[in-house]
């Protein structure tokens, strides 16, 4: 994105839009403005919802296979725009270009897998109550679905919502993060002339615009973001009896047992902790290591962190991009200070970085904190940055107790050479996703789901996602 022209507040564009800017986005590595956007007014929100309602009528009248064929064509267009999309993402979110491209590739693989699930999703016939009777369970689209997304995965998170919702026959209104709307707008524009008008709409703006949409007459809400925002949305949805899926934060632990190949475990942990500068809900943020390996893990991680290359995402050498927003950088700095004040030791990093080639950039040094205190902020708070906490344990019981000592329950991993410990961990780790002997990267066909404060309702990605976007009907036909 080179020219920050003013982008519209809604797609499709409302007829009376004047072109006045509502907010700007900045390249977090270079500090320059890269986008200007209109923020939707109350009238534009109402207009968009009415357009989506009409779009739902036309879109839901198609068969599932017709919809999936059109969505497959849309995914093809998105793929052909990979370079431009990756540029949008890197310029607004900050992640290295290679990571942006990898995100688009993963999003497309998941989306294509979802179309396969959607083509086969539907009713079930059960034995009737009398000869000649049929009992069928049918599913129908819900109507107009609201999708609200955060700034860390500007393509993956929207597609995880749009594809299953649309494939099930719903119209969707997407409200992307006000920090990263460019990629979302490109996705929605790529659907133009493939889908009926209104089947896929986009509304730009910050939390106030999103809150207005939440309180409007929509039929389901799929939200990914922070716990405080999730609570607000859940409260309104509960009052209105609107079904809601909340994908929230994490404080993800990895247990490192006395493994023979510690290096392999540390490599996987470093990858899972520092991609996207640690701004991933599934980032590993706590390493719970057997006391016998504590020193070697501290040394091995410190060395790996020193090998990361912080820099602007468009620099091909960069492996650690900037923090996306000033507010997030301030939060990371505050939490690392709080951890130190509470007794954690900074083994490496711990401060903001000023880079000669990007002096305005929002960089934070890759950081390793050591604490054995499960109450320390380094053990409890979602820092959402390039910060890893190292904690030692002495027994299997203690390792599992420490891993579960968090309000969050998104993902976890264990590295062990013992099958009995692996089996016990898969049964006792209190997270929606559990990985044995690899990092926390989820597969393209498995539920992406959290428990406890990490999520409410159905997750995304796996086949159960389609249940969230459809209503269930028990139909009895007497013979
Ligand atoms: P956020 O909650 O601040 O914002 C997310 C979205 O909600 C944005 O589009 C924002 O405009 C909107 N919003 C803000 N106030 C709102 C309100 N009152 N009502 C409705 N919508 C409102 O989160 P963020 O800072 O953009 O993202 C970071 C958080 O997202 C982290 O906590 C991270 O763990 C979480 N996250 C979770 C997952 C997951 O799948 N579990 C994935 C990515 C990010």
From TrEMBL:
It holds the Pfam family Aldedh. CDD domains: ALDH (cd07078). Residues 20-472 form the Aldehyde dehydrogenase domain. Keywords: Oxidoreductase. Gene3D superfamilies: Aldehyde Dehydrogenase, Chain A, domain 1 (3.40.605.10), Aldehyde Dehydrogenase, Chain A, domain 2 (3.40.309.10). InterPro entries: Ald_DH/histidinol_DH, Ald_DH_C, Ald_DH_CS_GLU, Ald_DH_N, Aldehyde_DH_dom. GO terms for molecular function: oxidoreductase activity, acting on the aldehyde or oxo group of donors, NAD or NADP as acceptor. The active site is at 247. Belongs to the aldehyde dehydrogenase family. This is Aldehyde dehydrogenase (NAD+). It comes from Vannielia litorea. The lineage of its organism: Bacteria, Pseudomonadati, Pseudomonadota, Alphaproteobacteria, Rhodobacterales.
């Amino acid at each position: 994105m080179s020219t920050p022209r003013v982008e519209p507040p809604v797609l499709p564009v409302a007829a009376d839009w004047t072109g006045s800017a509502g907010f700007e986005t900045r390249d977090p590595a270079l500090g320059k403005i890269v986008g200007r956007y209109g923020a939707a007014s109350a009238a534009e929100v109402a207009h968009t919802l009415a357009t989506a309602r009409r779009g739902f009528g036309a879109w839901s009248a198609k068969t599932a296979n017709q919809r999936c064929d059109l969505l497959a064509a849309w995914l093809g267009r998105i793929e052909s725009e990979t370079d431009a999309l990756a540029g949008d993402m890197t310029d607004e979110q900050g992640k290295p270009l290679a990571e942006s491209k990898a995100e688009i590739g993963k999003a497309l693989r998941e989306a294509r897998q979802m179309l396969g699930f959607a083509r086969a999703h539907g009713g079930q016939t059960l034995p009737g109550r009398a000869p000649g009777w049929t009992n069928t369970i049918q599913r129908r689209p819900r109507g107009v679905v609201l999708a609200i997304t955060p700034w860390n995965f500007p393509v993956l998170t929207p597609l995880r919502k749009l594809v299953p919702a649309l494939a099930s026959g719903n119209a969707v209104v997407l409200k992307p993060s006000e920090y990263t709307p460019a990629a979302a707008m490109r996705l929605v524009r790529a659907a133009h002339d493939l889908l009926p008008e209104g089947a896929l709409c986009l509304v730009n703006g910050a939390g106030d615009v999103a809150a207005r949409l939440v309180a409007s007459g929509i039929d389901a809400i799929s939200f990914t973001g922070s716990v405080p925002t999730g609570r607000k949305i859940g409260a309104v949805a509960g009052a209105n009896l609107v079904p809601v899926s909340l994908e929230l934060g994490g404080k993800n632990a990895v247990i490192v047992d006395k493994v023979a190949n510690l290096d392999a475990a540390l490599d996987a942990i470093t990858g899972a902790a520092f991609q996207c500068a640690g701004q991933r809900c599934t980032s590993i943020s706590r390493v719970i290591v057997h006391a016998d390996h504590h020193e070697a893990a501290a040394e091995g991680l410190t060395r790996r962190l020193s090998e990361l290359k912080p820099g602007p995402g468009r620099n091909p050498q960069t492996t650690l991009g900037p923090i996306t927003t000033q507010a997030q950088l301030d939060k990371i700095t505050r939490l690392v200070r709080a951890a130190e004040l509470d007794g954690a030791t900074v083994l490496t990093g711990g401060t903001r970085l000023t880079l000669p080639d990007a002096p305005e950039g929002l960089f934070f040094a890759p950081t390793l904190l050591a604490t054995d205190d499960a109450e320390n902020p380094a053990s409890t708070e979602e820092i959402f940055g390039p910060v890893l906490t190292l904690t030692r344990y002495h027994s299997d019981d203690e390792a599992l107790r420490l891993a579960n000592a968090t309000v969050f329950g998104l993902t976890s991993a264990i590295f062990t050479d013992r099958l009995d410990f692996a089996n016990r961990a898969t049964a006792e780790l209190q997270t929606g996703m559990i990985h044995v002997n690899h990092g926390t990267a989820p597969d393209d066909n498995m539920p992406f789901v959290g428990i406890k404060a990490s999520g409410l309702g159905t997750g995304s990605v796996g086949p159960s996602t389609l249940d969230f976007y459809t209503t269930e009907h028990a139909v009895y036909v007497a013979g």
